[in-house]
Here is the input.
Amino acid sequence: MAKKPAKVPEKYARRLTALRSAMRERDLGAYVVLDRKDQYYLTGFTGEDGAVLITSSRVTLLTDGRFDETADIETPWAKKVVRKQRGADSYVKAIAATRVKVVGFDPNHMNVLTFSELKKRLKPIDLKAASGLVTELRLRKDASEIAAIRKAIKVAEDAFVATRRYIRAGATEAEVAARLVFEMTSRGASGPAFGPIVAAGANSSLPHYEPRNVKIRNNSIVLIDWGARVDWHISDLTRVVAIGSIPRKMERVYQVVREAHDRAVAAARPGIAAGELDAVARDHIRSAGFGDRFSHSLGHGIGLDVHEGPGLRVGATVKLEPGMVVTIEPGVYLPGVGGVRLENDVLITREGAESLSSLPL
Ligand code: ZN
Ligand code: ZN
Here is the structure.
């Protein structure tokens, strides 16, 4: 007897419906999804090797033998193709079987080799670049995603509190980073969201510093930027810890960054343009006399990826909407002296914004 096809879980059905309407708007008969996070978002499939082909009526999952069983467990409702080799062959077959005229793909996630092979071999089917279809859907988080992000924040915060006593003079940046990862993983994180930044003293003026075997010294600051990955979703936080007393100059920097952060969180609401929110913090920092020392954007969306839309950057016109989760992370960096960045994760709600992190700044 043939096995009854499993029903598509409501969460994925909703996302697939939205994707299909975007496909129709762009006249795409099929869409091939190559990004692992996009695949997870649309199907729940976590396998490392995968491609998902979506048409108006069907979802086909291409993977290899290592993830055959994973596919049955996680995505039993999709048509499964276990391929022997990566490369164009399996795509050509699966796409040809759909009998569509135009198949879309996200150019951010297809390499040039696959593209040129497919372009040639798919004819007369047209292969068309269509970026941002899934990215656009992922901008607004549903309840299950917000719950996962909350968990990722809680794990990161608890891990920070547990690590706090190791952040002291004599400990190295690398030791503190390792401790943070250990504490997050022991609390249920599948790993860190990214390699934690632990920057002691003057190293903190380098926004994307990598921790080394450098000792933390008395009367200095330590900048820590870390996050956890829980249920595939991430958190992203930054705190600055004072070891002993800190130079008056850095105290002033801290105060200005703190005010910029608080102003931006207070201004975050639906309808405000991302660039407008960036300006709230940037203008404050500029008027405090640190004009060109805020060298990156105010924040970014978080979710399955550490950096996703919307980007809160100078001039960005995208308007914030309920369900978006963004970081607010102003910073001021004085080369050779040190830097302060304060970062929290904020959910845009219907009325304004809710700060999802409760760890004191
Ligand atoms: Zn961060
Ligand atoms: Zn960030």
